[in-house]
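Bumping with the actual sequence this time:
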Amino acid sequence: MKFKITLKDPDALYDAIRESVDEDINSDEIFGGGMVPPAAIEIIKDEKIKEAEKACQEWFKWGEYITVEVDTEKKTCTVLHV
């Protein structure tokens, strides 16, 4: 049997991307060592966020809806494209 589930969470993608970008920036010595001004860091963060959001448009509708298809016979769960 196959069935589709559409999940909606307006904050999940938004929060996950921002947390990931913050972790990347904080773990990078160039950004944490005071070599890059705070204003430049914010610009870089914004660009990384936009890039990730754009990449996710393939699976997330309006940044908050995602549909998965469960196949109980194959025991798989697949994220469907928008």
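The tokens above came from a reply further down the thread. The radius of gyration is 17 Å.
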